[in-house]
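Hey team,

Filing this mostly as a record. A colleague (T.K.) asked me to run one chain through the structure pipeline before their review meeting, and I want the input and output archived in the tracker in case anyone asks later how it was produced. No errors, nothing strange. Just documentation.

Input sequence:
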Amino acid sequence: MGRNASRNRSVLAFLIVAVLLVSAGCASARVNDAAAVTPSTEPPTSATTAVTSTTTTIPAIDLPLPPGDDSVYILGDSVILGTQYVIDSTLAGWRVTLDAKVSRRMDQGLDIVRSKGGALGRVVVVHLCTNWFGGDYGAAADQLIAMLKGADRIVWVTCVPWVGEIKAANEAIKVLPSRYPNVAAVDWAAVAGTPGYTSGDGLHLQGVGQNALADLVAGAIGPAPAPA
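Output structure:
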């Protein structure tokens, strides 16, 4: 019987130790769990995205022309012809000549400039790529610019690339400002797809599109100069 009592005491001691060890483990786990869910007192951090500004005018025109002649000559095709009802009011203060015709091609525009001896106006706006079907557009643009006389500012407008050749023409237009300090390129093609800007053909202007294109051109031209 003494041996049985001794054995029972050993078993009891073992059980007590086991219970203590399990309790300690549970307490440790609760502490660790609490630490894992304790909210941080540090302010939350958030990723920020850099905001990039874009412009449809390359480069953007910030400075008005010096006092003097206030003539603007717009040479173009049927797309820019769609601004005819809003362009005068949009370019208030300028004397505007809108010379635009349906289906006009670049070579026909060159003929017009040549026929006028290059004297179109102090500001010349060109939109002649809707009917471009191949060739070296950059060379044609160089030829037109070389013929102009007295043009302090030239605004060249890209066209909706409804045929593949126009994409190449647009790229040629976009690099003109890097070679001619008095040229700004207006990237109409980049925004022409805005809902409501064009009719079903994706080319010709609807009401809000008329104002949008006129506004882009006006932004590139700048305010009318003061009288000399």
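Quick notes for T.K.: The first strand starts at residue 57 and ends at 58. The chain has two domains: 1-36, 57-221.
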